[in-house]
Here is the input.
Amino acid sequence: MERILKRVTDATMRGGAAMLAAVAILAVAAFDASAAQPQPWQLGMQEHVTPVGHKIDQLHDILLVIITLISLFVLALLVYVCIRFKRSNNPTPSKTTHHTWLEVAWTGIPALILVFIGLYSFPLLYFGDKAIDPDMTVKVESHQWYWNYTYPDEEITFDSYLIPDEDIKDGQTRLLDVDNRLVVPVGAKVQILVNTYDVMHSFFVPALAVQVYGTPGRINETWFQVDKPGVYYGQCNQICGIDHSRMPIVVHAMEQAEYDAWLVTAKEQFAMNPGATKVASVAD
Here is the structure.
């Protein structure tokens, strides 16, 4: 019987390892096909392009190993119990009601696992909480149903609306593209201050590992630093009203030279107080 049990346990472990390998292969294939927006049949998270996102990937990989080992252990234990303690092999059941070391083990080991996870997760929470010495600040205000972006240092502000279906052009994505994108330079540490004009909204961009709520009556903070140029899509994932699914977020990360050129145009198009700018220019 012990030999049969060993064979069953070994087969269970091999089957679990094969399943894990298959999932890993599919996940790699999905990541290869991933971009800055969801892809059909995508597995796992979108490819992250920020320091916070890279740390989230590391934590995810650690948790995947831990939960896989726990699942295989519990499965093997169930198989063992079903075989070892079935009626034919155990006609006279034990009358034992307590086992001190067993109770210590099933309480202490999960606690140690949680402490181990906490050693990785708590520093990550603090790391992604606030920007330290940011290079620029962007104020994000949510409305029903559009976004407003303000660059206080550059004195520009503009609204960002979903492009209607009838106005979608080639190369644009339905329900994700907007008329005015949030533009940032690559490599800059961007502080994001989020508030809301009406109800709760959510500023969520998966590729940037950004998820923060706009809450009435307060300002919430997050940050990101994009590693490579590209266009990154997100959405408000808070149920904020009838058009809550029509509040996309598009972040366009540009190289510094390209960003500087965009900024010159933006200061003319989106000046916070264009009348005062004209008066100042006449006075000069």
Remarks:
- The first strand starts at residue 136 and ends at 143.
- The chain has two domains: 2-127, 136-283.
- The first helix runs from residue 2 to 33.
- Residues 144 and 242 are 9 Å apart (CA to CA).
